[in-house]
């Protein structure tokens, strides 16, 4: 990398058994944190630092030293850092995998470097399979997916205050993951904020905790530490949304998938609709009644629902997809019942044809 000093150390090499270190690091995350359970009066400034090899380490500035350094700290900038203390990286919520963390001292030097660029955002996404293997881990993780469900819960008590609570359903890796969000972060998940997007929004969860509960694993934010971003303008968003049809063709597993493509053709087929029960389940015609397996009974009143095939192209590949009622209603901007009425208006049946 241009401008890098050969004498600069790598973050992965840092240990307490040497006093003199000199590193080029990018500040990828900054946050203030108090621990009301221990000492509510002490304020700490934490940060995550990353070098050119994308290795990260956590650093902390104690309360009395914050005014000395905070004026020169900017998230996203690169600095030359020297004269710091190295201590074990312990605690309930670790943000970096590194065994050690850095403590700022009065003599610590933290000088901005304009000749060095580290463009990577510092996000390192964990898959759902990896989350399920790690279970109740104290290392916070980053996660990316598509919001497929939002449920607002009752406010909960936290250290004498009532805070907001939202339960998210996020789709990624062909699966869905539950994510619990507390506090001010819930404001981003208000209905009006999400409704303005033309499609289900992408969400990036930064520094979330893996939590084991009865029946499975969930993700949960840590107050003042975790952050979430809706449709962030970063390369990782584009990469996630660029899952293409070729990837889908190569994966024959059952599951949920998210792909981007262009509908080139709606197949002209006679069986583009079907009858369904009001419960949404398909029905089987039996004389003058219909059988619904889900309800376990015969029903007289049925609904008509879409079921069409479309040809979708992306990246030189084409695949037939079956779209059902909700998706087709959004595509055609009319329900299946409205489509039938439109057909009757445009192509009226001559009563003489039906006369015996």
From TrEMBL:
Tell me which CDD domains the record gives.
RPA1_DBD_A_like (cd04480)
Give start and end of each Replication protein A 70 kDa DNA-binding subunit B/D first OB fold domain: 10-109
The name of this protein is Replication protein A 70 kDa DNA-binding subunit B/D first OB fold domain-containing protein
SUPFAM superfamilies annotated for this entry? Answer: Nucleic acid-binding proteins
Q: What is the protein's species of origin?
A: Arachis hypogaea
């Amino acid at each position: 990398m241009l401008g890098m000093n050969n004498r600069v150390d790598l973050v992965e090499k840092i240990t307490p058994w040497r006093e003199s270190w000199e590193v080029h690091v990018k500040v990828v995350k900054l946050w203030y944190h108090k621990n009301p359970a221990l000492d509510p009066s002490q304020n700490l400034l934490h940060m995550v630092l990353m070098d050119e090899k994308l290795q990260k380490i956590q650093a902390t500035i104690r309360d009395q030293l914050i005014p000395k350094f905070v004026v020169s700290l900017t998230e996203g900038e690169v600095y030359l850092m020297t004269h710091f203390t190295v201590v074990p990286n312990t605690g309930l919520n670790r943000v970096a995998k590194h065994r050690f963390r850095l403590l700022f001292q009065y003599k610590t030097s933290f000088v901005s470097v304009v000749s060095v660029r580290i463009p990577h955002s510092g996000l390192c996404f964990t898959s759902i399979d990896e989350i399920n293997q790690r279970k109740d881990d104290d290392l916070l993780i980053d996660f990316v997916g598509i919001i497929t469900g939002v449920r607002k819960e009752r406010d909960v008590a936290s250290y004498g205050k009532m805070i907001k609570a939202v339960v998210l359903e996020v789709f990624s890796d062909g699966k869905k993951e539950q994510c619990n969000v507390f506090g001010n972060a819930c404001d981003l998940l208000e209905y009006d904020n999400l409704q303005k997007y033309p499609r289900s929004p992408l969400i990036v969860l930064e520094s979330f905790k893996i939590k084991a509960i009865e029946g499975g694993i969930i993700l949960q934010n840590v107050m003042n530490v975790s952050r979430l971003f809706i449709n962030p303008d970063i390369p990782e968003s584009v990469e996630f949304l660029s899952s293409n049809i070729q990837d889908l063709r190569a994966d024959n597993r059952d599951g949920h998938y998210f792909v981007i493509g262009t509908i080139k053709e709606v197949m002209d087929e006679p069986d583009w609709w079907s009858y369904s029960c009001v419960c949404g389940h398909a029905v089987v015609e039996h004389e003058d009644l219909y059988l619904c397996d889900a309800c376990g009974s015969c029903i007289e009143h049925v609904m008509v629902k879409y079921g069409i095939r479309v040809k979708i192209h992306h990246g030189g590949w084409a695949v037939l997809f079956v779209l059902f009622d909700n998706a087709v209603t959004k595509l055609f901007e009319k329900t299946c019942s409205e489509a039938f009425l439109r057909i009757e208006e445009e192509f009226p049946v001559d009563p003489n044809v039906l006369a015996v």
